[in-house]
Amino acid sequence: MVALLALDWAQAQLDGDGFGFGWGNSSLLRSSNSVGNGNSEEEVRVALDQLPRDASDILDILKAEQAPLDLWLIIAREYFKLGKLDQFRQILEEGSSHEIDEYYADVRYERIAILNALGAYYSYLGKIETKQREKEEYFIQATKHYNKASRIDMHEPSTWVGKGQLLLAKGEVEQASAAFRIVLEGDRDNVSALLGQACVEYNRGHYSESLTLYKRALQVYPDCPGALDPENVEALVSLAILDLQTNEAAGIKKGMEKMQRAFEIYPYCAMALNYLANHFFFTGQHFLVEQLTETALAVTNHGPTKSHSYYNLARSYHSKGDYETASRYYWASVKEINKPSEFVFPYYGLGQVQLKLGEIKNALSNFEKVLEVYPDNCETLKVLGHIHVQLGQTEKAQEFLRKATKIDPRDAEAFLDLGELLISTDTVAALDALKTARSLLKKGGEEVPIEVLNNIAVIHFEREELELALQTFKEALGDGIWLTFLEGKAKTYEIDATSSLLQYKDMQIFHRLEEEGLSVGLSWNKVTTLFNLARLLEQLHNTETASTLYRLILFKYPDYIDAFLRLAAIAKARNNLQLSIELVNEALKVNDKCANALSMLGDLELKNDDWVKAKETFRAASEATDGKDSYATLSLVCILFIVHTALGSLKIFGVLPTLTFLGNWNYFAAIRNEKRNPKLEATHLEKAKELYTRVLVQHTANLYAANGAGVVLAEKGHFDVQEAASGSIFVQMPDVWINLAHVYFAQGNFALAVKMYQNCLRKFFYNTDSQILLYLARTHYEAEQWQDCKRTLLRAIHLSPSNYTLRFDAGVAMQKFSASTLQKTKRTVDEVRSTVDELENAVRLFSQLSAASNLHFHGFDEKKINTHVEYCKHLLEAAKVHREAAEREEQQNRQRLDLARQMALAEEARRKAEEQRKFQLERRKQEDELKRVRQQEEHFERVKEQWKSSTSASKRRDRSDIDDGEGGHSEKRRRKGGKRRKKEKSSRSRYETEEADMMDDHDEPEDEDANLNYREPGYQMNDQEDNVEENAQDVLAAAGLEDSDAEDDAFVDAKAAPSSAGRRRRAWSESDEDEIPERKTQSSLLQENSAELQDSDGEFRDDTNRQQENAAVDDED
Amino acid sequence: MKLAGLKSIENAHDESVWAAAWIPATETRPALLMTGSLDETVKLWKPDELTLERTNTGHCLGVVSVAAHPSGAIAASASLDSFVRVFDVDSNTSIANLEAPPSEVWQMQFDPKGTTLAVAGGGSASVQLWNTDTWKLIATLSIPRPEGPKPSDKNSSKKFVLSVAWSPDGRRVACGSMDGTISVFDVARAKFLHHLEGHFMPVRSLVYSPADPRVLFSASDDAHVHMYDAEGKTMVAALSGHASWVLSVDASPDGAAVATGSSDRTVRLWDLSMRAAVQTMSNHGDQVWGVTFRPPGGPGPRVGRLASVSDDKSISLYDYS
């Protein structure tokens, strides 16, 4: 590209010479007449080679002799040839004066010739003049003369040719062409016009047309100066350049021959020298280039030519790699140029060299100059893009590269550059660019560089388009042994792989593959891609293949530390610490200063509980990086802190890989201070906050610090700030979620806390983290959602079965649940029953734990568990009583209902009987009435009979009637009596039970053994059951008493009166309230800062309970 | 080979479903799917419609494992309270309540002949063998404790036994521990044979290949399934692909495939000839605690069935072909 441009420039540069050449030709043509003075009678001989110095003499002669005007012209020309321009001008100006016009009014052609000569002269002056004002002045002069000539004869072709030349000189190519065409229309063989037109075509870049025109000019006028004068160097050079422009091998060869001839004729033509130098530069003969250009520089003072020469020289040095010298010559070349638009190449070269020399800013300004001239030049745009990248101005760089790709959408390289540039900022755009580059390269039949594919794949990888990434990686890697692994074919060889412990170090497979004649090759440029592929496979959870690939890398390049570290990381993830440590050590064998490896080793040693070693390792890591690796440094600080404060088994490390250990240190110092001196605590907290803030200022993105700061603020009670600090920025960090949940928890916003914990579990841990489940359970516990609490704990147990702490907690939760149910004033039998079940479970759990503690399964104090067991047993007993009571109550309720129903029935019966009686009474009344009436009637009859005569039959019937009535009466009386008896009996039994219950009631608070106490009422209840059918009142009374009894009991339980129940409760409250916080400290400290939140919370609760505890202790004493 | 979803029951239990096993078919009824859950119940389901046959209660705390006698007549379920309840499948009458303190109970399995029930004993670092006639404890297979001074907290919890499996010939019992080691026992002599190493995280599920009594599959929290030659003490292959803990593994009756359930909420089918996952089912919304192939036999068409149970309270049935 550079070379091509150079040629372009050369053409442009030559235009000037081409024009000059044309101009020269035309004037020569016109004045190539022999000297003669035909009009004069007297002959005045003027020796043309002996013209006087002062033109006035000649003028006087010419005027005096009335010499023909052509003679004037000839003499002027002679002066011109001699370089006496003033005289030349003087003669011509005199020749075109008004006097002459008037005098020679008829001699039109000569007058025109004189004017044209003057016009041409001024054109030339204008052309070579560099100062704009003078230049225009000359052009105006020239125009004036030509216009004058036109006024003499509109159709004089030579005037038009002159005008055309002038326009050419002014750069108005189209108008010039029009002028020439006017001439050619009149005379298509006008050589000057042809030459002018050729020049126009040349200027337009139509070289072949230009050449045809020149050729035609030659045909028409074979004595054309070039041909006429084989020694005319300029003509030769021009023709040579024309030949060179054909851009064909033959043309170039011919051109170079001409150039050489020109050089041989006249070795000091700078133009020719430059061109030769240019040629030799391309043929690589730098020695010649230097010689030629140096000569050229010596012989010319013409700025552009010199600049060209310097440029050639600089290029020569540039290509030889001598940037210093090249830069100097480029600089010289640039200095010769007024405007970059004249000759821009030195700027480009200078820029390139400065880039090489590292003077980026200077290079930038130079390339910018090039860009001003060629705003669409892709190369320049790309170079500028690169420079901006180096200057860190990615935006600008992108702008340039985007422009470059827009201008040339087929420039794969530009797309590649753009893509690479965008990777860090805009992956989508980068991916697009790289893909375009890839397809361009493919279309062009070129092989896509592995780096490009690698980059594309990496972007896919980062955008989690894992499948695409995989495909692209495969494409990038092409054929190779890895395909065997990827497709799982090689696994068949692995069957008898032995020690599984060493699976990630095993290299046998490759040896075996080699033995089987498969080539296990891996070229160096593919290693990175292969490594990336393995990372991808890891991401896809295809760890096995990933490890094989890592091993393949190590098999071929045993110094590839990253592969060791990845293998170690895989082993670590699988908890194979021993192997992981070995692998890291392998890595350290390669480079014992590798900070990453050292940090990892430190981590592993910590995991292995090898504190002292870990300390040493972190110290080494810290030293390896001169203390710049904050991870190692801070880990070290943390270890020292922990070792010194003897926190023992607190595993803070898993969650503390941060810059902020110092902050944490202070934080812990504040929290851990046993005496909890408020002043000291405040100082520590303040310090911690300060540290976190400082880290935050330095690394705004350090989540750990923000998190830490949040925790401190939370500790100080600034919950809102904590939320703001953690906020939504760090949603990717589970710790933040957990801490936020802790905050919600501390605020008493249990529902939100629960949600937070659950989301965190689901989002980050696949619901497998029993620790968070524990937090969740605790939240439920505080929210008094006992069943949720229990379930959560059971889930946690299921996840980490060997964590007995969880079992203990589950026991506590069940115990608490039971206790709280028992405290309720209203509860159903089912509730009480489940309470009893729960207590039984709790007892069982605690006893199991107690048994297990004998086997040293866990670190519980056997005594404590036994206390729990005892307490639960006690509670269980009580609960059983409660259950019985409740069951009894339920039964009684049922009975009450039964009785009520019975009573209702009895009532109904009684009512019916009453009705019956009433009815009977009524009837009896009526009967009596009737009887009386009848009796009266009878009496009357009898009287009548007595009066008359009476019959025995009627008497008999009457008597039976009376009997009937009496019988019904007596029966009723009997029934009534029965009822009264029953009533007596029931009232008696009622008193009995009442008494018993009362006794029971009084006894209970005093009696230690509730069970024994309750056996009686139970017994009695059976009695009652017997009685119950007999009397409803009794039951009601008993039930009423039962109610009060239950209330009393609950009261006793709740009031903590000096009774066994009270003591039990206190024992419970002590153990429970004490235990839960303890559990918290044990478990929650695993989780860094969050733990402290809990811990402090626990301690806070401790305080509130202290009094009670003391009381309990007293009580026990 | 392929899995095709047949039927899913949402909210099959009130709480997370933790265990699943097929009860072999008897002359009177087809094979039943038995599931155990945190909701303290054991449910029996009739394929392929998964109609609920019965709900057994009687457990406290969550049901962590279920096992069926090869005859299909009796089954056992165990819960976090360390009780094993043995019951008659058809009548749900309790046959025995087993307890061997201080052992907890985790995975259980009947031996192929049905004479012995092996129970993973958790913190006792042992496997209990129960006679299925008398329901008496016959033997306790203890993992030898590593030498060293006084066993500390760490050591003991490491050998916590979570999973147990019988070899198809009934001569071996393998058990998996929290620390990732697998111990192989000679049943006849009640003797510890050797460890199989390779995992370093809890091994929650073990199964022998029905085709080859030497081949043992193990599922571990390290997201891998290992295939061991249990006699030769070597690892044959490691299958990776799950994103989180592998909670359950079962081998297909034809021995050509294994299925796994994982915390990553997926069920995977592995082709053993390719040693690669050929299918991933992601119909569950939470951890998949159990996968189980239906044993062959019984009336009805002889088609393969796989069931999976999950923390999302659902159970799923697949056609395996």
TrEMBL record, chain A:
GO terms for cellular component: Cdc73/Paf1 complex. Residues 917-1117 are annotated as: Disordered. Residues 994-1010, 1023-1032, 1042-1051 have a biased composition (Acidic residues). TPR repeats lie at residues 191-224, 344-377, 378-411, 734-767. It comes from the Eukaryota. Residues 1082-1093 have a biased composition (Polar residues). The keyword Protease does not apply. Residues 917-947, 958-970 have a biased composition (Basic and acidic residues). GO terms for molecular function: RNA polymerase II complex binding. The keyword Repeat applies. Keywords: Repeat, TPR repeat. This is RNA polymerase-associated protein CTR9-like protein. One of its GO terms (biological process) is transcription elongation by RNA polymerase II. InterPro entries: Ctr9, TPR-like_helical_dom_sf, TPR_rpt. Gene3D superfamilies: Tetratricopeptide repeat domain.
From TrEMBL, chain B:
InterPro entries: SKI8, WD40/YVTN_repeat-like_dom_sf, WD40_PAC1, WD40_repeat_CS, WD40_repeat_dom_sf, WD40_rpt. The keyword Repeat applies. Pfam families: WD40. WD repeats lie at residues 10-46, 56-97, 154-195, 196-238, 239-280. Keywords: Repeat, WD repeat. GO terms for cellular component: Cdc73/Paf1 complex. The keyword Protease does not apply. This is Anaphase-promoting complex subunit 4 WD40 domain-containing protein.
